Structure formats: C-alpha cells, structure tokens
Amino acid sequence: MDSWVRFNAQSQAKERVIRAAQYACTLLGHTLPKGGAMAEHHKTVSQLEAHMSMTRKLLRLGNSVEALEAAKRAIHLSDGVLRLCLTISHLNRAMYFVCDNVLWAGKVGLISKLDQHKWSQRSFRYYLFALILNLTRDVYELRLLIEHEGPYRPSKPPCSPIPSTTLSSPTPATSARICRKLHLLMTVLYSNPPLLLDLLKNGCDIFIPLDRLGIYPTGSGFVGACGLVSSILSILTMVHPWLKLKP
Q1: What are the residues whose beta carbons fall under 8 Å from the beta carbon of 112, sequence distance 6 or more?
Q2: For 80-96, what is each residue's pLDDT tens digit?
Q3: Distance between CA atoms of 187 and 174, rounded to whole angstroms?
Q4: Residues 6+ apart with CB under 8 A from 201
Q5: At 60, phi and psi to the nearest 5?
Q6: Dihedral sign, CA of 57, 63, 65, 68?
Q7: Residue 56: which residues within 8 A CB-CB, separation 6 or more?
C-alpha cells in the first residue's frame, strides 16, 4: 500500500500543471468571442480543455487509495475537530475519485450506457463536501491561532478610532475593536503562510462545484479564474513543501 501511495504521488505535480492549463483554457474560452473569425480558435480552446480534463482523469486513477490512506492517518489525530474534519474530508475525496474513475471509464467506452451527467453531479457533491470540511478546518485553525496570539498583542488599537458623526455610525470604541480584530487577523495570516495559502486555495476551489451543481452559478470565466489561481497555489505548495498545511 505504501509503495503504491509513493508511486501515485509522482503524478500529482503533473496533474496540477495540467489542471492549471485546463482552467486557463476555460478562462480563455470565456474571453474569446464565439462568433466571426475567432470561432475556430474558440473551438480549438474548448477541445484542448476537454482533452486536458480527460488526461487529468487518467492521472487520477487510483487516487482513492491514497485518500483512504490519508483518512486512516487522520483518524488518529489527537484534536477532535481536526480528526473529524480531515477524516470525513478524505473519505469524501475518496468517493469523489471513485466517481471520477467511473466517469473516465464511461467516456472512453469501458462502461456502456453510463449516465455521465448523474455521475458528474455525484462527484461534484463529494468534492463540495470535502471542500466545506477543509474550509471548516482552516477556520478552526485560524481561530485557535487568534486565541493564542490575542493575549500577547498590545492593547493599543492599531488604527485611530473613527469619530461618530451620526447615530448609525459606529462608536469610537466599536471602531477600535474592529481595527484590533482586523489587525490581529491579518497578523496571524501573515505569520502563517501555509494556513493563508490553504484558505485561499479552498476558497477559490469551492466556487467550482457550486457552479457545476447550480447552487451558485458564477459563469465559466469566474470558474476558470478560480481554478487557475487554486492550481497555481497547489503547485507552489509542491515546489515549497513547507508551505503545505499540516497535518
């Protein structure tokens, strides 16, 4: 099992690069005009995006095994919230990869009469649940860091209170509290790049299944931009492993 996980990990960097190129094509396809002389270029970009999507599905064959191994490791974490979030997140990722593998088999003709829309929607639901749990984990860790840093921060507000001019305006004390909290939040995130990158990556990724499932449609241009940013952040954590949030 361990040898398979190590072997499978070698394809992750390639998959991330192809993912970045795929969402770059999605963004480019949205910006290109669909009519006139650019119609042929738009068709080429769409075909390239589809080929990259199929290549990624091929590279992800067997990733469910790695996700199950990660769930087995997460279930032994001492922190109850992290144990719950990470274990269920990895299990959802495993089911997402299973659905993705079934979709690949249907697209290449290994499984005939496969309802590809149904399996696609099912895979995006598992993907969405995993991302929600990942974001919950990020927020929980951020809260722990803020609680740890809070008592050691100076009580002096980092910015001057805004004078109250109307009844609806915040009082000086409220403005000072908001300034202190924002300053503390930015300080904690700046001091913890792995948490900041993971929060940004998951925040970008979550718009992809929300759009695909029709829960919060944002359009192909926004989805392409979010996918491209999250892919670049993922590549960055692979190039510099210390930027990867642990566990």
Answers
A1: none
A2: 999 999 999 999 999 99
A3: 20
A4: 229, 230, 233, 234
A5: -90, 5
A6: negative
A7: 15, 18, 19, 22
